[in-house]
Design a protein that fits this description.
Number of helices: 16
Shape: globular
Distance between the termini: 74 Å
Bound molecules: flavin-adenine dinucleotide
Strand order of the largest sheet: 4-3-2-8-20
Oligomer: single chain
Strand content: 15-25%
Largest sheet: 5 strands, parallel
Structural class: alpha/beta
Length: about 475
């Protein structure tokens, strides 16, 4: 029989963003309904962050034997990869985390979970399965999906996306990846290190959202490892290959070329999950990029909020979590909390890692005119030398008074090294704060202190004095 529910808050989508709102709201005592049509945990747990980092972990282990030789450790020849066991490892990590996002856990928190697709039937009402929900507030947290680029023939060939690539139990002989963004390149490196031949096709520039000065190091490493990366090409069509697999016809430097792979992976951007929600019935405006929201994450229907990938503009799990806090304050406490995107961090988990927060050099120049650009290389770091992991750079941007505007790192553990810079950007700290910290020796985090110290060196001192300051920065 049809059921009518009238909770304080109804959340659509049990991914990173929706789960955070539902947990927070119910713990605050709000009557909460959570609707999920697929797997609890959404993309991050099932088809995104968790499986991609798990397969990368396996891939990094795969080359340990090869790397050991530099340290005088010889572990035998090339590693043997049991691809099914790699698959089982990835699924095992998902299974280990899944209880945290499960129906049982959320019902235990007092949330009413409905496992069905939701669609609005009016400005204050939706249907999900047999239930009609009339909530005081709604939150749309429906995420995004792999976008299918308009390539002739693509719809007629079998292709993988992030929703299916982690189901592979056999190594692809030759994986062709369309899209050289973080998702495409993380998976390209993982598959290559696990023994697949990999070709990546990019119509623009690889890792286009990051600073080319730093991305070049990632691309060089991938190419050295045997990943073929073609940039600035035009894909004309895709078709089934005669002997099985898929052929991509493309134009490279004006010349036609065909590449045939055993498997095709499409990682060419994300499309917001707005279809099938019947947003029109609720008066919620959206574009192909996602649902329109104001700084408080309210949609054009003031009773409805949207967050995470479906609202954008940054499609990361940590942003969905950040959005959730803003929505809870606005929707439940009526505190006018607004998003602040000054210190949005992101990391690409290739080896070497690539990490960024705040403004890059171009954006900083546009906004602030006169800026300072500071650089320090990992090869000057003793720990990096000991680890034989010296390929890396930190680049920091300050305004003319030394206030930190942004930071980017490429190198080992770049993602782990980013946090103090997120604080510096968010707190509008002066670079002297970082320069004055005592960094433990020998750690990679000394690169942060050293790059900060270079601000004063370049501005104030002669060459001789610089040497003394370098000494003090290291041992002082
Ligand atoms: C391969 C890959 C790797 C990634 N790696 C990282 C990373 O390392 N770090 C990082 O920060 N981010 C990463 N991301 C991005 C991250 O996964 C997303 O930003 C995050 O999952 C967004 O959370 P969300 O809550 O907005 O949406 P989702 O997690 O996608 O959840 C949305 C949920 O809504 C459900 N839903 C949709 N429509 C309806 C409906 N009509 N009714 C009911 N339910 C519905 C969906 O089934 C889904 O479960 C990665 C993404 C991919 C694809």
């Amino acid at each position: 029989m049809a059921e009518v529910l009238t909770p304080d808050i109804c959340v659509i989508g049990a991914g990173s963003g929706g789960l955070s709102v539902a947990a927070g709201a119910s713990q605050m005592g709000a009557e909460t309904v959570l609707i999920e049509k697929g797997k609890m945990g959404g993309d991050c747990l099932n088809y995104g962050c968790v499986p991609s980092k798990s397969i990368l972990a396996a891939a990094h282990h795969a080359i340990e034997g090869r790397n050991g030789r530099r340290f005088g450790v010889i572990n035998g020849g090339e590693p043997k990869i049991d691809f099914r066991a790699v698959h089982d490892h990835v699924q095992g990590v998902i299974a280990a985390i899944a209880p945290h996002d499960s129906v049982e856990r959320f019902e235990g928190l007092g949330v009413r979970v409905i496992q069905a697709a939701a669609a609005f039937t009016g400005p204050r009402e939706l249907r999900a399965g047999d239930a009609t929900v009339r909530a005081r507030r709604f939150v749309v947290a429906t995420g995004s999906s792999a976008m299918a680029p308009p390539i002739p023939g693509l719809a007629e060939v079998p292709y993988l996306t992030n929703e299916t690539v982690f189901d592979l139990t056999e190594r692809p002989a030759h994986l062709v990846v369309i899209g050289a963004g973080p998702i495409g390149l993380e998976l390209a490196q993982a598959q290559r290190r696990l023994g697949a031949r990999v070709t990546v096709l990019e119509v623009a520039r690889a890792l286009a959202k990051d600073d080319p000065e730093l991305t070049s190091l990632v691309l060089t490493r991938l190419r050295k490892e045997g990943v073929e990366i073609l940039e600035g090409i035009k894909i004309s069509s895709v078709s089934k290959a005669d002997g099985g697999g898929v052929t991509v016809t493309l134009e490279e430097d004006g010349a036609a070329r065909e590449i045939t792979g055993s498997h095709l992976l499409v990682a060419a951007g994300r499309a917001a999950n707005v279809q099938s929600l019947n947003l029109e019935a609720a008066g919620i405006a959206y574009t192909p990029k996602g649902i329109e929201v104001d700084a408080r994450l309210r949609t054009t229907n003031k009773k409805v909020y949207a967050l995470g990938d479906v609202a954008g503009p940054y499609q990361f799990t940590h942003m969905a979590g950040y959005h959730a806090g803003i929505v809870i304050r606005n929707a439940l406490f009526r505190m006018p909390a607004k998003v602040d995107y000054r210190a949005v961090p992101w990391v690409t988990f290739t080896d070497p890692e690539l990490a960024h927060v705040g403004l890059d050099e171009t954006a900083a120049r546009e906004r602030h005119g006169e800026i300072r650009v500071l650089r320090w290389r990992f090869e000057e770091n003793d720990r990096a030398q000991a680890e034989r992991a010296t390929e890396g750079t930190i680049k920091v941007i300050t305004d003319k008074r030394g206030r930190v505007l942004g930071a980017s790192l490429v190198g080992p553990h770049a993602g782990e090294l980013l946090l103090p810079w997120i604080m510096a950007v968010q707190q509008r700290q002066k670079i002297g704060v970082m320069a004055g910290l005592i960094a433990p020796y020998p750690t990679l985090s000394e690169v942060s202190k050293r790059v900060a110290g270079s601000y004063f060196m370049d501005a104030l001192f002669s060459e001789r004095t610089k040497k003394i300051v370098r000494f003090l920065a290291k041992f002082g």
